[in-house]
Amino acid sequence: MVALAGAAGTLTILSVLAVAAADRELNPGRYGDGGMDRMVTAIVAIIALQVAGLAAVTGRLSAVMRARRLSNLRLLGLSAGRTRLVAATEVAVAAAAGSIVAVAVFPAMRPVLARLRVGEQAWPASALDPGVLALVAVPALVTAATVALAVLPEQLGSRQALSQSRQSEAPAPAWWRVIPLLLGVGVCLYVQIARRGDEGAANIMLAGLLLLGAGMVLVVPLFVQFVAAFMLRAGRQVPLLLAGRRLQAQPAAVNRVITGLLLGLFLVVGARAVVVAFENTPQYRAAARQLTEEQRVGTTLPAAEVDEVAARTLAVPGVRQVITYPILTTACDDFFDPHHCREIAIVATCAQLAAIDPAVEGCRDGEVMAVGSLPFKAATLAITWMPQRNFAPDPAYSITVSAPQDTFTASTIYGVVIPPSLPQVAEIASIADNGIVVIGDPGRDLEQRLRDAGVLPNAHSHWDMADYDFVATLRSTVYTVAAVVMGLGLLAFAIAAIDRAIARRRELTSLRLAGIPAHTLRRSQWVEALVPIAGGAVLAIALGHFAGATYLAFGDTDLAAPWEPTLILAAAAAFGGVLIAALTVVATTQPITSETIRFE
Fold this sequence. Notes:
The chain is of the alpha+beta class. It is 63% helix and 9% strand.
């Protein structure tokens, strides 16, 4: 089992590093500001935490029997250092063998990783190379971590050795462990209620999240003790009594198994809330609309070409609608910086604006309005607009209208909107350049299809699909990390649960001989395996959701943490607990025969 854990841990970390190296090679622009480097570091740390948990579990398989055997060596006179060396050698050889095998088979994993798609991103097998340093360092670190986690916690003093030899019960965890968690909950509630949307509360929010995560780790022993006590006091049912007594007798085995899993789930669920913040940006929503509802691209044309080009564009397959609108500009007051002082106005109705940009809200027909904010001083009473970009207005080709006094919101429209119903606007607009917006079937290829048809070669979308791809990749990364965290955590728990069940075959045989029915023992095993993992996972996921809600409350008062992925993870944890419980029952099921009695 130690070799299997070493191989699984090494392969997992090498795969993550290989994907990160390939992504850096294919998308170097993502790594310019250091944000992606920090995200990759966080992902590696989360997965390394799960690998460490798996290593700790497998390195200390049959923890009670190992402790008793090592303690007996101490009582026979072997020094603590040599006793620890014996334990370290046992674990190191197996862990190193598994890690070396993982390095040897990793090249065969690269084609498998090449088939993996995270969001819209895939990586060729040739780019999936973690590097020589990783191929050397990862196996060494996994082996060292397995040895350290398996051997260093052993209590090898004489008093501890005598206690282990006599199988003394573990002391109850102190109740102070719950204090950091309560403080974290209190701070997060304060941010959500009293400092909602306040960017000045960043340090307070960070302190609350750190207390929440640290408190959850510290409270795991209390959680296991509470579960055991609840089983013992919930009723006089024999399965509950047996399961509760076993959890009381060996709490450390359960604690170290579920701690890493719970912390990983906490971080993953919290990270999903960060993705929600990205998903609610205008850039992402507009790009998602391009892919799921309809594409929009646009450009500018001279007035003389508008009708002919619009007709040709409408004939292109996949084009649903073509909208045109005149564009006016103000006079320029600054001869040396004309681009700074010009302001754009479009001549259109609210219905046209809604077709151009579905995000339009608050538009009123018949009024001159501005998008977002008023671009002119409040004292401005009127503005002169003209159809061409001249440095001074020509009275014969310009129009003066009232300055906008109110605003509306939009995502792709900017400047000022002038209603076409105003006097003289139609005459000036007829000689102005026109904006043209083409609406087509959902996808990414409308620009290319227009170019292939020989129309609107300069048409482009207002939104860069790279924003959408980044968020989609980020979301898929969170789900992928969640799957890895859940998989490694459940694997560790399954190994530990099955090992404990096999080690207790003698106990189960004795209970059978004492008259306890087999179905009662099976029910106790179901409860012992299912309740800690399912209950602990639900606790971690709920706290992660709470942490995510705190982050969203700090950043934007209108956003809420998503429940759907939270419920999916909770259901997956419960299903994993059921599966592990079934495996433990199968592993310990054996008929009671005279041979079994003699052997056990």
